[in-house]
């Protein structure tokens, strides 16, 4: 069968890669290629940077209200094409169609809508310096920005960067993960339909080492916004630092999920299932380390394992599926190797840990792993320290706030945490003590687009979201005007 070829989106045109080469795009649920993604290289990046540079003077001088209208139009088109986009995301990524329909795609539209509106309320500062001068800050767009995004929430994370960057007047070269290129390719069509001027957004598909690296190295790209793994983030920082580029890095996580004995246990179990296994555990915010206060440890485990076993794993396109496929063969092998390591490190698997026994004929070669619950591991072992990024959680008992705060902060990561308790004082104490960019109390992944989002320690540099994002994509320039003496 001839597979559909995805195109790059450069200077307003859909075009093949300069090399003429394509990579197979695999459907994770079947393990089979179903489309072809451009294997672009630095020649395509060069064209895209050129196009973005040409478009910059016009777009940056376009009134904010007009830019906002175009971005709102993109949001409307995402909403209108919800079903097609959700299907594309589910097939590309292996996630349940219900999740893509209820979360990823609506949130992508929300990103465009939110930043289209917030740019209209973007403030800059002014300072009266005694009676001698007025200082005011001009915030100009920085030029051509490079946007590099991962495969786990493909359209959502891409739009989270594209929308603020465009809203304040930058032009862009974006590289989605080549493992999940389909929704970005559909977005290109929607941008054309919405009337986004040629060259304002350019999307170059291909691999990190060829396309991603060429964007980061390009001298005409002064801003790089990256979401992905910590190792890749280090590489990007190494390249960007001597070129004095402004970078934002949203990286990995190994997030603690802390349950105190006074928590509402049924809610904590239900939401911990979600925070452990949503998108097969492939969300940077997943709470992959659960800590439970000793007094309710046995009770929690009983309920948690019982609920985990109820999750239906299988074809992502079926409406009652809770757990789809992992995104790729590489990710599948990596997660299985961690499950082996857990046993070597002395862990006891309470459920999961295997490929499911019964899968539909269509999914026989897909990358499925049962949701896996592991206990009896020390907090400093590799399983409790390294990001697995799959449907694997550990559960560890604790006795005191001090002990659990030490466990929570014992990794190199610091992206997010959840704390479950009815004691308001304890919630505040824990929130203050945990080293992470976000602390959720009695909830998980409850998002407000206005709040600063990002990680501490090896989970990232900088913050996205709300005004932080608009500020990131602008260059502040102070203008000092002396007030003449009368
Ligand atoms: P990677 O770091 O492997 O890839 C992210 C992106 O970077 C991909 O588009 C990738 O291309 C590209 N890339 C790879 N190498 C380079 C390079 N040398 N120069 C420039 N770009 C490069 O991450 P994954 O795609 O595997 O995503 C999973 C990771 O993302 C997890 O660690 C997860 O925690 C993190 N993440 C963080 C979030 C946050 O907000 N903090 C949110 C979501 C995910 P290619 O696909 O070709 O490799």
Write the layout of secondary structure elements.
Layout: E1 4-5, E2 8-10, E3 13-15, E4 22-27, E5 32-38, H1 42-61, H2 64-80, H3 82-93, H4 97-118, E6 126-129, E7 133-141, E8 144-148, H5 154-167, E9 171-175, H6 182-194, E10 201-203, H7 208-217, E11 223-227, H8 230-240, E12 246-250, E13 256-259, H9 265-277, E14 289-293, H10 297-310, H11 329-344, E15 348-351, E16 372-375, H12 382-385, E17 392-398, H13 401-408, E18 413-414, E19 416-420, H14 424-433, E20 438-441, E21 456-457, E22 460-461, H15 466-472, E23 474-482
Parallel strand pairs: 1-5, 8-9, 8-11, 9-10, 11-12, 13-14, 13-19, 14-17, 16-17, 19-20
Antiparallel strand pairs: 2-3, 4-5, 6-7, 7-23, 12-22, 15-16, 18-21
Bound molecules: NADPH dihydro-nicotinamide-adenine-dinucleotide phosphate (NDP).
Please provide a brief summary of the model:
The chain is 39% helix and 22% strand.
Structural descriptors:
binds NADPH dihydro-nicotinamide-adenine-dinucleotide phosphate; 486 residues; globular; alpha/beta
């Amino acid at each position: 069968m001839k597979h559909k070829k995805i195109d790059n989106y450069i200077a307003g045109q859909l075009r093949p890669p300069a090399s003429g080469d394509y990579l197979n795009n695999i459907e994770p649920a079947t393990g089979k290629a179903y489309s072809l993604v451009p294997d672009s290289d630095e020649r395509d990046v060069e064209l895209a940077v050129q196009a973005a540079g040409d478009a910059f003077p016009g777009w940056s001088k376009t009134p904010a209200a007009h830019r906002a209208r175009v971005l709102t139009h993109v949001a409307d088109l995402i909403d209108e094409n919800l079903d097609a986009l959700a299907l594309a995301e589910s097939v590309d990524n292996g996630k349940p169609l219900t999740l893509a329909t209820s979360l990823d795609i609506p949130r992508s539209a929300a990103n465009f809508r939110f930043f289209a509106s917030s740019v209209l309320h973007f403030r800059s500062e002014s300072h009266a310096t005694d009676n001698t001068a007025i200082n005011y800050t001009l915030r100009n767009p920085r030029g051509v920005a490079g946007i590099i995004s991962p495969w786990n929430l493909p359209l959502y994370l891409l739009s989270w960067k594209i929308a603020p960057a465009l809203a304040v007047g930058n032009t862009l070269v974006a590289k989605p993960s080549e493992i999940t290129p389909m929704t970005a390719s559909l977005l290109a069509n929607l941008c054309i339909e919405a009337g986004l001027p040629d060259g304002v957004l350019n999307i170059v598909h291909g691999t990190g080492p060829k396309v991603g690296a060429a964007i980061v190295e390009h001298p005409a790209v002064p801003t790089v916004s990256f979401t992905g793994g910590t190792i890749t983030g280090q590489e990007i920082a190494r390249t960007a630092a001597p070129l004095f580029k402004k970078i934002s890095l949203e990286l990995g996580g190994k997030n603690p999920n802390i349950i105190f004995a006074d928590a509402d246990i049924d809610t904590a179990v239900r939401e911990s299932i979600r925070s452990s296994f949503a998108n097969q555990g492939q969300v940077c915010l997943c709470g992959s380390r659960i800590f439970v206060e000793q007094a309710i440890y046995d009770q929690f485990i009983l309920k948690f394992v019982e609920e985990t076993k109820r999750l239906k794993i299988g074809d992502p396109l079926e409406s009652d599926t809770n757990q789809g496929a992992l995104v790729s063969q590489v990710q599948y092998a990596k997660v299985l190797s961690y499950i082996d390591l857990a046993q070597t490190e002395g862990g006891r698997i309470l459920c999961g840990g295997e490929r499911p026994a019964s899968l539909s004929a269509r999914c026989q070669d897909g990358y499925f792993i049962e949701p896996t619950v592991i206990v009896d591991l020390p907090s400093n072992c590799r399983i409790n320290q390294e990001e697995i990024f799959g449907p694997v959680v550990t559960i560890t008992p604790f006795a005191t706030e001090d002990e659990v705060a030490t466990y929570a902060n014992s990794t190199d990561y610091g992206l997010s945490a959840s704390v479950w308790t009815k004691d308001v004082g304890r919630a505040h104490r824990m929130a203050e003590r945990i080293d992470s960019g976000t602390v959720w109390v009695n909830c998980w992944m409850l998002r407000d687009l206005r709040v600063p989002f990002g990680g501490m320690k090896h989970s990232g540099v900088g913050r996205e979201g709300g005004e932080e994002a608009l500020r990131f994509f602008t260059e502040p320039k102070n203008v000092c005007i002396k007030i003449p003496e009368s």
